[in-house]
Amino acid sequence: MIGKLLRRRPKKLKVDDFVYDWKMLQQHCRTRKTWPQAIHEADALIEKALKGRRYKGKTTGERLVAAQHELTDNEAVWFAHKFASKIDGEDVRKLKKQDVLQALNGFRQALRDLGALPS
What we know:
With 119 residues, the protein is mostly helical. Helices cover 63% and strands 0% of the residues.
């Protein structure tokens, strides 16, 4: 019984690792050509944080649903996650700077909410 309770307890994340990864990801924001890479890396960071916090689910979407009570802006992170899926194979010239910024802000807030980035 106690073992079950301990396993379900959210695990603390290594914030330094996430801060480093986030800084590296931000370097991809300098040019339009690498915006998709920044978005995909941010989506991968969310997945890593959700798995690290032991949220159940087979996909990132399922884990986001499980974590929704901890996220302060559920709509923003869902926009970001859907945007990451949508830009696969899309011409980078069609990407809007505002959408990229909105997605990255959604990812950043979710990472803060999950304890992966400092507030």
